[in-house]
TrEMBL record:
Primary localisation category: membrane
UniProt feature coiled coil, ranges: 23-50
The species this protein was found in: Dicaeum eximium
Location of the protein in the cell: Membrane
Encoding gene (name): Mical1
BMERB domain segment(s): 13-154
Name of protein: MICA1 monooxygenase
UniProt entry keywords in alphabetical sequence: Coiled coil, Membrane, Monooxygenase, Oxidoreductase
Coiled coil among keywords: yes
Amino acid sequence: YPTWKRTLARRARESQMKRFCRAQAIQRRLEEIEVTFRELEQQGIKLEKLLRDENGSPADQQTQWTNQLLYLVQKKNNLMMEESDLMIAVQELKLEEQQCQLDEKLRSYLNKEDTLKTPEDEKAEQEILKQLVEVVNKRNVLIQLQEEKRLSEL
């Protein structure tokens, strides 16, 4: 087994582990966001009840509750934006994984001697190349989407 093949296989495993770790971290963060959403919603419900029920409270108290409610809404909006970014990252990870698998398949066809390739092999090679281009284009669209989102936030 040539050294370059072992190196490629090792690098593929390493990048797969990195993607797996990133996916786990994203999943954990999405779960944390979900819990925080529920907490914010409960706090918001309490504040809304206070604002509706306490007509005789001092004006500063009502202003304070209103400000707290607005803060909760702002915090929830920030979490929604972060969740959106994470969902894009998940899609990007899936496409990255798909690209690596297609790269590996394509490499196996390209390493085969031209004289040993059957017409089916050549057709499969072209199909894989076509799929690889599609995946790269999809990743490019995601990157453009992230860039547009980042620029609109600025």
